[in-house]
Amino acid sequence: MKNTLSMATQGLALVLACTLNFAFAQAQADKPRQGYFFVGGRYVETDKGPLMERQMYVEYFFPVKQTQPYPVVMIHGAAQTGTNFTGTPDGRKGWAQYFVEHGYAVYVVDQPARGRSAYREALGANIRFSAAQLEQRFTAHEKFNLWPQAKLHTQWPGEGPGKGQRGDPVFDQFYASQVQYIGSNATTQELNRDAGAALLDKIGPAIIMTHSQSGAIGWPIADARPKLVKGIIAAEPSGPPFADAVFTSSPSRLWGVTDIPMTYDPPVSDASQLAVVQQAAADGPDLERCRMQAAPARRMPTLAGIPILIVTTESSYHAVYDHCTSKYLAQAGVPNTFVRLGDVGIHGNGHMLMIEKNSLDIAAFIEQWTAKNVR
Questions:
Q1: Catalytic residue among 6, 130, 184, 212
Q2: The model's pTM
């Protein structure tokens, strides 16, 4: 009798487990695999009545079977929108689709006051890139040779002598995607820090992927929500610390890697308290002399312990100085992995690495690093 009851109990438990698993699977099957929502908005009173500002558009993509524990949040750079990650101007698969195919949930944003995230004039004046600026910096810089590595560029999609310039259909599609953006870096970083924190509060722990301007956004998001940021992938992040390079030498990112306050130990109440020294000699030919903290360096405790990958390409203007961002973080007690893509056999890329011809080779390298290092 005891064995009969035991077998019956086991059978009932098995049926119940199967029923629950089926119900869970059905619920997942009924859930949209792609959609959108907004986070971080607030109402403000205006002469036109109440308006919402600071909201961030978030588009999500879910795999049929999610095999990776943490989603990837993809944040675009200046003048861009989330379309950087959802396709290429010549019609190929984007990084969002690649990561979904490898088992990650993916969230792609339009920064607040940009693209599908409504802009309000009170947030600051807008600026735009001209087509000539993009030709010189992003798409055909091998023809202009404004920095030493520029001549190594080979990966912009398209053919012919006009590749990467106005009249090239691929360039024209890319330029059509460009939008205006708030000219104040500090305002942009503050808006995105708050909206990014709101997004993590909603979706839970995630990996933050940044590019260019948003490099200075990833660090403040992690500073605000260190327990929820499980990794940072910084593709050619805004830099170098403390001053611009290549195009100007203007002071910038006075908090080291940002224009807005970050947590330091010992504490810093004003950016002027960060004593800055510049290398007497660069780390190699054709490289920027890095600006670092004077010893003893203050530490950045909220970033310490987060796996960080900084990637720079072979021919971008970032090749001149991205190593300085890596060195600055390391000096502040923040270990990170700095990779020049040319050193791992991925050659010829410019700044818009996620839409160039070998973009999926780069995605594969990043995904392999992520799978190995983010836990």
A1: 212
A2: 0.92
